[in-house]
Amino acid sequence: MDLELASRIEGLLNDPAASCTDMRSALADLYERCRTQQQMLDRLTQISDKYQQAERERGLSYAEQLQRKVRQVEKIVRISDGYQSMLQDLNARLTAISTHDELTGLPNRRYMQERLNQAIAHTTRNGEAFSIALVDIDFFKRINDSAGHAIGDVVLTRVAACMRDSMRDYDICARWGGEEFLILFACCDKQNAAQLAERVRLGVAAIATADLHPGLQLTASIGFTEFLPGEKAIDAALKRADDALYRAKDAGRNCVVGSP
Amino acid sequence: MDNLIIAQSPSSPAIAADWNAGVISMRGDSYPENSFELFQPLIDWVEAYLAKAGRPLHLELELVYLNTSSIRSMMDIFDQMEVAHKKGQTVSARWSYDAANERVGQLAEEFCEDCTFPFSIDVKS
Prior knowledge:
- The complex is a heterodimer of chains A (260) and B (125).
- Chain A has 260 residues and is an alpha+beta fold.
- Chain A has helices at 3-14, 20-99, 109-126, 140-147, 149-166, 190-205, 235-250, and strands at 131-137, 172-175, 180-185, 220-226, 256-258.
- In chain A, strands 2-3-1-4-5 form a five-stranded mixed sheet, sandwiched between helices.
- In chain A, α1 runs antiparallel to α2 and α5 packs across α6.
- The mean pLDDT of chain A is 93.
- Chain B has 125 residues and is an alpha/beta fold.
- Chain B has one domain (4-123): STAS domain (Transcription Regulator spoIIAA), CATH 3.30.750.
- Chain B has helices spanning 35-52, 68-86, 102-112; strands at 4-6, 14-18, 23-30, 57-66, 91-97, 119-123.
- In chain B, a hairpin with a 7-residue loop joins β1 (4-6) and β2.
- In chain B, α1 (35-52) runs parallel beside α2.
- The mean pLDDT of chain B is 94.
- The chains are: A alpha+beta (260), B alpha/beta (125).
């Protein structure tokens, strides 16, 4: 309330003889003043309410935006995990391809080389014997020539399956060359190797081939040897097994020969 | 506006955006060192096209592997298309994948989950 109006009203209130006209005029001014103030107050309240509402909406939209972002990040993470596991699968497939022979599913030469090195390291540490055997399918070239390469491939896969079946769980057999397989007999001296190799020979001779080609005879020759204490690499043992294999071939095939 | 051509590299896909045809094609793997650098021109192109061209936009994808930041960029592009679609513009996408790699198709499904515009996922013929 402005000072002028206040002092006027105070003057009138203190004056017992104040005229009614003066009082009315002061009351009218006061009433006008009061109404203006009330209008301003209403307007202020309205503005304040609007601000409050706007702030509330802004808060809600922040929360909504944040939720959307969280959902988006979750989705990115999910998809990214998917791609990662896709790469892992691909990696596993490539590893299998690089370590296994495609036709027979047996470990390949590279993988076998690694396993042989591990076996040598193991023997050097623990003195546990191991033996190797080279298995060669007899007259394989003749089978290929007479029955065709497709039948030759079937023969290879059947021999591979037979070897898998006739070996112990902890032995390992690789496709070493065309029709040549190398078996690693773990924890096995020469005497045991002779028995295990004989089991493989019998297994191959028993493979059914009647459905493949008339008169097809399937046998294998095997040369084996024990890895000798003090040897540093597999080469010498491979040479002994190979020589033994030659002797098996010379002896009329379908037999097992050990190195001297 | 010009066409946008980004040549394929071992770590980034071939990208071709044709202004007149209204078609963007992306092929290959995407794991660039700086995915912002790779994708920002494309995101800008899409924004300009949707704002000015007044024609449908089609996205033709043959993407195989995407790293995390590439996934994010692709989602941004799909978001742009989704906004345009909601405004009534014609947009569509097709993601083709090799039958030998079914996982790519499954991941494309995840991308298209929140898109309401036409989005087909097909085995490459």
